[in-house]
Task: structure prediction
Amino acid sequence: MSPEPEVVTEALPEEAAPRGPLHSYRELRKVPGFWRMVAIGMASKLPSSMVELSLLLLVGRAYSYGTAGLAVACLAIGQCVTAPLRGRLIDRYSPRAVLLGCLAGYTAATVLVILTASGAGSAAAVLAFSTALGATSPPVAVLMRTVWHNAAERGMFTTAMALDSAMMGTALVTGPVLASWLSLSFSGTVPLIVIAVLTAVVVFLLLDTEVPPRPAGRRHWLGPLTSAPLRRLLIADGLFVLAVTATDVLLPIYAKEHGAAVFTGAYLSALSIGSVLGSLALGAMPGLLARGPKLSVLLLVFAAGGGALALGARLSPVAVLFLSPVAGLVLGSVFGTLRTVGSDLAKEGEVTETMSWLTSLDMAGGAVGAAVFAHLAVTEGSGTALALVPAVVLLSALAGWTARSPSGKQG
Result:
C-alpha cells in the first residue's frame, strides 16, 4: 500500500486582533520605561501649574496685589524670553549640563524671592528676582516631550502627546489647589519650597536623558524659525492660547457680573475636565483625523464650542456651566496636536528648541489674551468679549491650515 501523499498546507496569517478603544494606549504602554516616563511627566507638570499662584500669594502678603501681579508677569517674561535659548542649549550640548545649571540658578532665585518678599525688601528687587526665577526655570516639561519624541514610535507620538496634554490639564486643576492649600495651611513660603524640591527631583530623574546631537556644520542663527510652516504653526499656537486664556479670564468676570461668583471655580474646572476627557478620547483614536488638516479641524470645533459658550452667556450662568465642558472638549487635543505637528516640522537635532518655541508662544499668547480681553470685558462687557473669542480661534485655524510639513509627515 503506497503511502498517502503528504499534504502541504500554507500557514494562514493570524487574524489581526480586534482593536478596542484603548488599543493605542496599550501599544504606548509597551514603550520601554513607560510608567517611569508617565510618573516623571506628571511630576514635571506640577511646578509650572503651582508657581504663578504661589508667587502671587507670597508677594501679595507683604505688597499690594498690583505688585504681586507684576511679579507673576515678570516670572512669565523671564520664562518666555529664555525658553528657546534653554532648548537650543539642550540640543547643542547636553541635558545634564543645562538642567544642573538651570537648577542652581532656579534654587538661588527661589531663595532670594523668599528672603526678599518675607523681609519686605524693595518691590524692584522682588520683580528682578521673579524674572530670574522664570529665566532659570529648568525646562523639564519641554524635555519630557523630547523624551516621548525619541521613545515613542511614529504612530504612537500622537497618543503620547494626548496623554501629555491630559496630564497638563490634570496639573492645572490640582496644582493651584495644592499651592493655595499649602500657602493657607502653612505659610506663603512653603509652596515655593515644595516647587523647588519637586523640580530638583524631576531634574535628577532626567539627567540621563539622551538627546540626538545637532548635525555638524553651521546652522542659521534663527534655528527652527527658518521653517515657514513652523512659523505659521507658532502663530496658530499663540492665537489659540490667546483665545484659551481669554476664556479663562472672561468666565470669572462673567460670573461676577451676573451675581454667580459661586460658579467661578466650577466654570474653570469644567473647562479643564472637558479638556482632559477630550485629550484621552482622541489619544485612543490617533488615526481619527490622520488624513487632512487635523489641527484646523480641531480648532474649528473649539470655535464652535466657544460660540456656543457665548450664546449660553446670553441665557444664564447655569447654561454657561453646562456648556463649559463642551467648550473645553478639544483644548487638550489641540495642545497635543500642536506639539505633534511641531515634532514633525522639527529638524534633526532641534526638537527641544522647537518645543521651547511653542512654550514661548504659549506664554506670549496667554499674556496678550489676559490683558486684551480683560480690558474688553471692562469696556464692552464679558458677554461681548466672549463673542469675540471664536474669531480669534478662526484666525488660528487659518494659520494652522498652512502649517504643514512639506514632506507630508504630519498627521
About this structure: The mean pLDDT is 85. The first helix runs from residue 23 to 29. Residues 147 and 209 are 7 Å apart (CA to CA). The two ends are 65 Å apart (CA to CA).
